[in-house]
Amino acid sequence: MKKAMKHKHLSALVLVAVLILSLGALGGCARPDGPAVSSPAPEVSAPAPEVSSPAPEVTLPAPTAKIADQATDAEGVYNGQIDNNSIEIQMSPTDVAAFRTTEVNDQLEGLEDGDRVKFGYKPNAEGQLVLTFIEKME
Questions:
Q1: Which of UniProt's keywords are assigned here (predicted)?
Q2: Cβ neighbours, 10 Å, residue 134
Q3: What is the dotted CATH code of the domain comprising 65-136?
């Protein structure tokens, strides 16, 4: 009988030791060489800045005289078609112009945005710039 009692006490003692070791392993997750684990920082919200006046309007530089006049040998970058009868060409870093294409629609085939082009143009009666020819530069 004393043997059975010893086994019960020994089993209980082993069970308590296993529980203590398990709780210690689960409770002490922080490494001694790592940073301490703390609770998350509280959220801080800053008020939105007040806008007292509307943003200033951006003034673009005026086009150069070359855009306003006609040309027979201009160069630029084809920016794409605006509508069925107009395209846009970047002539310099600050000069972008729209050109009517009624006389050269067949010459636009194969042009892609970003292509360097050589072209000629002249003003029409309404003051619009009309392309007289356009070709992709190699």
A1: Signal
A2: 23
A3: 2.40.50.140
Task: Report the predicted TM-score, pTM, of the whole model to 2 decimal places.
Answer: 0.51
pLDDT score for 58: 45
Lowest-confidence pick of 20-24, 55-59, 89-93, 111-115: 55-59
Name the residue among 96, 118, 94 with its Cα closest to residue 107. 118
Binned at pLDDT 50, 70 and 90, residue 4 comes out as: low
Q: What distances in angstroms separate CA 125 from CA 59, 76, 122, 128, 130, one per listed residue? A: 28, 24, 10, 7, 10
